[in-house]
């Protein structure tokens, strides 16, 4: 049931963002580090090191969801500047 609820909320947020004209970039959390490293032409270890530094700067809480969102935003920025 939780998976279904998550999909429902995700789809509702995506539809609302689309209606509001907000650009949304979807990514797979499990592969976002690899995607970012490849796109930004950085070693995955460098991506992880920068993410760890952000965590030290931001402080707690710095949980998995925060890290994935930060990586997703970074990936979107890299993709936008690569155009």
What does this structure look like?
- The structure is a single chain.
- The protein is mainly α.
- It has helices spanning 2-19, 32-40, 44-58, 64-81.
- The termini are far apart.
List keywords for this structure.
single chain, globular, 83 residues, mainly alpha
How do the strands and helices of this protein lay out in sequence?
Layout: H1 2-19, H2 32-40, H3 44-58, H4 64-81
Radius of gyration: 14 Å
Oligomer: single chain
H and E order: HHHH
Number of domains: 1
Terminal CA distance? 40 Å
The number of helical elements comes to 4
Biggest sheet layout: none
On the 0 to 100 scale, the average pLDDT is 92
The helix/strand class is: mainly alpha
Could you write a compact summary of the structure shown?
The protein is an all-alpha fold. It is 72% helix and 0% strand.
